[in-house]
Amino acid sequence: MLREDKLQIQSFFHGIIVVMLLLKCFPGSGQSSVSGVVNTYHQVVEIIPAKACLRITNIAALDVNSRVMVVQMKGASINTTNSSSFGDITALNEAGNYEIGTVCYIKGDSVFLFHQLLNAYNTTTGKVQLVQFAEYVSATVVDTVKAIPWDNGSGTGGVIAIFADQDITLNAPIYAGLSGYSGGAFLLSGASCSDVFPANGYYYTASVSSPAQSGAYKGEGIADLASTQTGGRGAAANGGGGGNNHNNSGGGGANISNGGIGGGNSSNGVSCTVTRRGEAGKALSNSSGQKIFMGGGGGAGHNNNGVFTKGGGHGGGIVFIWATNISGNNQTVSADGGTGGESASDGAGGGGAGGTIIIHTDTYTGNINVSANGGAGGNSNDGGNIGRCFGGGGGGSGGVIYFNGTAAAGTILYAGGAAGTESGRDASCAAAQPATAGNTGFINTNYNFSRSTITAGYCQLLLPVKLISFFAEWKSNNVFLEWEVANPEMAKRFVIEKSVNGLEWRFSQVITAESGRYNYTATDTEITGSKIFYRLRITRSDNEISFSPVQMVAINESPSFSIYPNPANNNITVITNSVRVQTVKITDISGKTIITQAITGRHTTINLAACKPGIYFIKADGLVQKLLLQ
Question: Please, which pLDDT band fits residue 372 given cuts at 50, 70 and 90?
Fold first, then answer.
């Protein structure tokens, strides 16, 4: 494939960037209908903190200027002795570390962020992923928004992240239930059994089922296990333990509170009667909200009849919603854990733990229901078999819900999952060994999510041609375009591209760059429609391509404005095309107003000395543009 062909393919993805920028800048086109999977997930293989750089395996669909979440999914150290201490967390390490950032540049497989990284991450053992936000001006959820379930093989999934500059309206749910850590898998065991070692141990190779499985699969948590440790009653950190041979039930998964212990074997007068039930998933520390976790999976029950073939319940995922206003319409945002598998004269599965939900908004309209419940343990039906009785699965713990202010009006749920019940007990059985419910989760108000505010200067060194300004103006039945570059020696040519909808771009003009020439102009005389979008396709001397921000020209003097330079240092100039634009408001990324200034003419200079380096939004007459302050 020729280099220019590759650049054409790259321009397709840049078109996606343009759409996102347009949604921010032009509310008329900014109401989006949302459903299904809205995020992209990218495995991080290396981090270079000094450059705020993350190398990822799948660069496709990742956009410049997009918000992203960096989160480490695993990497905790645990006790691996064959004792009741198995799975105790000896060090969380970087597991659960997360932050929100913004992509400033993509080169090859490297993603550079505008700000320095706030936290340390371990890509060797920790399964770090980068999740790209779905970004809108305003969005209406018209059908269920879902997360791709967590995939331990790729180290991605389990997260929903949505941003809207204005409103998110829920006409359908946002659902990350059962998207977290996996419940212990069902495996049909052989019929033989044992009441002695090794059947009384805390870990086994779960996949060995012949002549009998010594211990069912554990639920998944924040620590990866060796194949020889995947089964048995010891909890895998926040993953519930699997029931041991014979027919003991799995424990419930955990988040930052404990899961419930699985029910045990209370058989009497027959063989294989020892209680070796799955241990409860262990509570994690969220380090005062600086760490976030998916819900741990419930352990599977030991099963040799195979009437029911579901193991432990999956944990809940992670949901992050960020908007100026959320209209709830009594819809639900959920990250619930899943119910453990039921059993018939076998061990039942433990419930998955609730996940984590973060909601950051200025206001709510109507009620919104928020749920991070733990999943119930599976029920066990003994069927009246003489002398054989087995308890149900342990309940998963409740999850964690964070609000930046007070809690939303509506139903807020974070309960632990109920213990699985036991029915059909034979009167000759010994005393019942019932499962226990998962512990209640937590709700936190006045929460500030993790993000860095320290500018990563290295990013600016990467920009192929530094565009100081680019704006377009309707005048005398033509559109006049002007732009200025800081390093013309790096430029080869400028291609003016235009669009009537901001989605499909066509060639307009080519302007050859000249060494030593900083300012360029062009005129478009072929005007059709009520508004036209313009962008520059900038080719560097080594044939690398970049694109300018998009400028919209509204024909017949509809209001619009542009700003330059962008990125800026101390001052910006606001250029308007309408007397309707009378006041400019500058807000930070959280929506706080920093500067309000009256417009005194077509060109108004604003001093930014009061602003720290970072990302800001310039708002005027309902229009919005992003500004990077260095």
Answer: very high
d(CA 290, CA 449): 8
Torsion angles phi and psi, residue 43, rounded to 5: -75, 130
User: By CB neighbour count within 10 A (0-12 exposed, 13-18 middle, 19+ buried), where does 4 fall?
Assistant: exposed
Give the number of other CB atoms < 10 A from CB of residue 590.
12
What 3 state SS string does 376-394 have?
CCCCEECCCCCCCCECCCC
Q: Match 């620590």 to its residue by tokens.
A: 223
Token look-up 């770090």 returns 128
The CA-atom distances, in angstroms, between 276 and each of 139, 189, 233, 246, 517 are: 51, 16, 7, 8, 79
CB 90 within 8 A of CB 223: no
pLDDT single digits (tens) 55-108: 999 998 998 878 999 999 999 999 999 999 999 999 999 999 999 998 888 888
The pTM of the full predicted model, rounded to 2 decimals, is: 0.74
- Residue whose entry in the numeric block shows the structure tokens 């003489």: 386
pLDDT digits (tens, 9 = 90+) for 314-360: 999 999 999 999 999 999 999 999 999 999 999 999 999 999 999 99
Q: How far apart are CA 510 and CA 25, in angstroms?
A: 26
How many helices, marked H, and strands, marked E, lie in the chain? 2, 38
506-512 vs 53-56, strand pairing mode = unpaired
Task: Determine the residue type at 390.
Answer: F
- Of 256, 304, 248, which is closest to residue 279 (Cα–Cα)? 248
CA distance 534 to 511: 14
408 in Cβ contact with 450 (< 8 Å): no
E strand or H helix that includes residue 285: none
Sign of CA dihedral 608, 611, 617, 619: negative
Query: Buried b / exposed e across 517-543, counting CB within 10 Å, b at 16+?
Result: eeebebebeeeeeebbbbbbbbbbeee
628 vs 614: CA distance, rounded Å: 6
User: What is d(CA 213, CA 564) in angstroms, rounded to the nearest whole number?
Assistant: 69
CA 97-122-242 angle, to 5 degrees, is 75
Tell me which H or E stretch contains 606.
Answer: strand 603-607
Report d(CA 396, CA 398) in Å as an integer: 7
Q: Which residue has the higher pLDDT, 466 or 449?
A: 449
Residue 626, Cβ neighbours under 10 Å: how many? 18
Q: Are 355 and 256 in contact (CB under 8 A)?
A: no
Q: Which domains does the chain have, with CATH numbers?
A: 31-462 (no CATH), 465-558 (2.60.40.10), 560-630 (2.60.40.10)
DSSP code at position 348: P
CB count within 10 Å of CB 457 equals 12
Q: Are strands 53-56 and 40-48 parallel, antiparallel or unpaired?
A: antiparallel
CB 225 within 8 A of CB 255: no
Strand 332-334 relative to strand 174-175, pairing? parallel
> What are the CA-CA distances from residue 360 to residues 137, 173, 332, 353 (Å)?
15, 17, 16, 23
